[in-house]
């Protein structure tokens, strides 16, 4: 018995109808009895061919869905993760701004010794983003309420030891002016000090600038040339998942210049003489290096009374110098005020070296009396 072949046009119409029919059904598992696949005596070859074409169309539809899912999962917008055990560079995230540890500038070090104490159990971290100046991120005690707050500080250019910064929650910002008397070539530094744990990299997107960076000690720092911006930072995990994001609102907090403002007045630059002891520094350092502002006093938080009090800057410096350990020794101190007097918590010094830069962090705490005995021995051994 002869059969009439199916024309290409009819075959195409059959395929299209079967695909449309298959698209209207939910994916499910169907158990087909084996007898249904055996040839039946009353089914002609044309019917069998139509059945085969229908099955092929269903398979093709399934393969099409699988291929579509595969394309979505391998979208080039997703970051490329883990090549040889190391997170590869993210895709379509802008330029990388490499971050590395740096030595704390002398001006920032002196500023952090001022009346605003470093929060116990924390250590300032100095980082350099790209090739610009370094910034120092720390946790300090708010003198108004005694609560810890994150701060960012930067030393001003030139021989002066002046440093400035801001404290806030969320993303921190501070301004850097390469030309002291002009806002030209200004840089706004943004630091996120609480990057979520498990973050592989953080992206920064302001519309005009897109960049990414790998965090160090849970911190990222993005320098933005020119004016402050509205932006969003996003923390991305090792599998490309979003771990957190935080918006940045354009602000001139901490700026020396506002739009349309003229140059700020010049101040006399000052360079610290070599070989000064801690007590001698209290007499010769400019008042601006001993605490915020150029005045002789500053407000500090008294941990005993829970209130802010006015403290003479040089008096604070002398009291702190009297109970300070040797900066090159094996003790680190965190100063604060209690009952109107300067006191300190002491810790074993832990010294590490990363990329040629020595970092000193707090180790186990030391009882106050034990620390004072060791400090007395240090004072007897050498002047510092």
Termini separation comes to 113 Å
Task: Give the count of helical stretches.
Answer: 7
Report the β-strand fraction as a percent range.
Answer: 25-35%
Order of helices and strands: HHEEHEEEEEEEEEEEHHEEHEEEH
Strand order of the largest sheet: 1-10-9-12-13
The coarse overall form would be elongated
Q: Major beta sheet, specifics? A: 5 strands, mixed
Number of domains: 3
Unreliable stretches (pLDDT < 50, length at least 5) are 25-43, 55-86
Please state the average pLDDT score: 77
Radius of gyration: 33 Å
Number of strands: 18
Helix content: 10-25%
Provide a concise account of the structure shown:
The chain has 384 residues and is α+β, with helices and mostly antiparallel strands. It has helices at residues 8-23, 45-73, 106-112, 278-284, 287-290, 313-322, 368-381, and strands at residues 95-96, 99-101, 125-129, 134-141, 148-155, 163-168, 172-176, 187-192, 199-205, 210-213, 220-225, 231-237, 242-248, 297-302, 307-312, 331-338, 341-354, 357-366.
Give an overview of the whole structure.
The protein has helices at residues 8-23, 45-73, 106-112, 278-284, 287-290, 313-322, 368-381, and strands at 95-96, 99-101, 125-129, 134-141, 148-155, 163-168, 172-176, 187-192, 199-205, 210-213, 220-225, 231-237, 242-248, 297-302, 307-312, 331-338, 341-354, 357-366. Helix 4 (278-284) runs antiparallel to helix 6. Helices cover 23% and strands 31% of the residues. It contains seven helices and 18 strands. With 384 residues, the protein is of the alpha+beta class. A five-stranded mixed beta sheet has the order 1-10-9-12-13, with no helix packed on it. The longest helix is centred in the N-terminal third of the chain and has 29 residues, at 45-73. The protein has three domains: 8-73, no CATH class; 95-257, no CATH class; 273-384, no CATH class.
């Amino acid at each position: 018995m002869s059969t009439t072949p199916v024309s290409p046009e009819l075959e195409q119409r059959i395929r299209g109808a079967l695909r449309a029919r298959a698209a209207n059904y939910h994916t499910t598992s169907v158990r087909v009895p084996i007898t249904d696949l055996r040839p039946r005596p009353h089914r002609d070859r044309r019917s069998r061919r139509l059945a085969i074409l229908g099955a092929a169309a269903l398979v093709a539809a399934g393969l099409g869905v699988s291929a579509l899912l595969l394309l979505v999962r391998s979208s080039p917008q997703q970051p490329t993760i883990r090549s040889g055990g190391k997170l590869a560079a993210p895709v379509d995230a802008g330029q990388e701004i490499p971050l590395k540890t740096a030595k704390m500038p002398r001006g920032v070090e002196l500023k952090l010794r001022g009346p605003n104490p470093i929060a116990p159990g924390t250590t300032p971290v100095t980082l350099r983003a790209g090739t610009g100046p370094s910034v120092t991120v720390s946790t300090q005690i708010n003198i108004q309420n005694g609560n810890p707050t994150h701060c960012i500080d930067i030393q001003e250019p030139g021989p002066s030891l002046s440093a400035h910064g801001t404290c806030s929650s969320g993303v921190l910002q501070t301004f850097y002016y390469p030309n002291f008397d002009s806002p030209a070539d200004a840089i706004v530094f943004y630091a996120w000090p609480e990057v979520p744990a498990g973050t592989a990299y953080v992206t920064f997107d302001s519309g005009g600038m897109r960049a990414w960076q790998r965090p160090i000690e849970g911190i990222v720092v993005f320098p933005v040339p020119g004016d402050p911006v509205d932006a969003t930072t996003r923390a991305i995990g090792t599998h490309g998942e979003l771990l957190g994001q935080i918006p940045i609102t354009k602000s001139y907090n901490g700026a020396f210049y506002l739009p349309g403002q003229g140059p700020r007045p010049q101040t006399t630059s000052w360079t610290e003489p070599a070989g000064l002891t801690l007590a001698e520094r209290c007499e010769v350092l400019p008042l601006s290096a001993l605490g915020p502002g150029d005045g002789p006093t500053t407000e500090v938080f008294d941990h005993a009374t829970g209130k802010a009090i006015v403290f003479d800057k040089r008096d604070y410096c002398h009291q702190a110098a009297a109970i300070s350990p040797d900066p090159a020794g094996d003790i680190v101190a965190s100063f604060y005020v209690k009952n109107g007097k300067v006191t300190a918590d002491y810790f074993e010094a832990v010294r590490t070296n990363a990329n040629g830069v020595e970092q000193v962090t707090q180790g186990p705490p030391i009882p106050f009396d034990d620390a004072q005995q060791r400090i007395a021995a240090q004072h007897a051994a050498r002047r510092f």
